[in-house]
Specification:
212 residues, alpha+beta, Glutaredoxin, 2 domains, 7 helices, 8 strands, 17% strand, globular
């Protein structure tokens, strides 16, 4: 019994071009597999980066701290207290003043505010005043007032003209900026940027100003 042409037909051998395509695909697959093995091996042998040391964390405050070579007086500039009364830093002469320039739109300012509240609480009954001066616009002043009310015993102060940063000598590079004035009204230290004001480094500055 003779086979049909279809049954007797042999599979066609792949052309050289088809064989070349197969080699390329096979090569890509091998390279991909090798890469995967390398990545997995590297991930399993690569050491974990060390966590920041306690020393590095502790030095953050010091790295932002500056002390003037020639102490200058607080700026002759008016801002307002929670009752709308005009005042100046000089009105607090006889106290150590920790003046903090902040705003509700400033993330680092919001982050450090609880530590400023802790600093004020730590000196309850002593001549130390933490003065948090908001440079929010008039339209945002109510929001700033509510925020400060949530961080007792801090009080609300507002720079309506938003010019206090430029009245400092030298001007503040940004917010937050915190300036410490001694009981004589002269600047003794300054911190540019967010800081932990509840720590021992901040307390040491205030204590030194109190002793002076």
């Amino acid at each position: 019994m003779s086979e049909s042409p279809e049954a007797s037909a042999k599979p066609e051998a792949p052309s050289p071009k088809q064989r070349g395509v197969g080699w390329v695909i096979g090569g890509v697959a091998l390279v991909g597999a090798a890469a995967a093995v390398y990545i997995i091996g590297s991930a399993s042998t690569k050491p974990t980066p060390p966590a920041p040391s306690a020393v590095a964390t502790a030095s953050t405050f010091a790295s932002k701290l500056t002390t003037p070579t020639a102490p200058t007086a607080s700026p002759d500039y008016t801002f307002y207290d929670a009752e709308g009364k005009a005042m100046k830093i000089a009105d607090l002469k006889g106290k150590v003043v920790v003046m903090n320039i902040w705003a509700t739109w400033c993330g680092p300012c919001v982050t450090e505010m609880p530590t400023l509240a802790k600093l004020q609480a730590a000196y309850a009954g002593k001549p130390v005043e933490v003065v948090t001066v908001s440079i929010d616009s008039e339209s945002s002043a109510a929001k700033a007032r509510i925020f400060i009310a949530q961080h007792a015993p801090l009080k609300f102060y507002h720079d309506r003209e938003m010019k206090l940063p430029f009245k400092l000598s030298p001007p503040a590079p940004g917010a937050p900026t915190t300036v410490i004035y001694g009981k004589d009204g002269l600047e003794v230290a300054r911190v540019a940027g967010e800081a932990d004001w509840s720590g021992k480094e901040a307390r040491a500055i205030v204590d030194k100003a109190l002793a002076g």
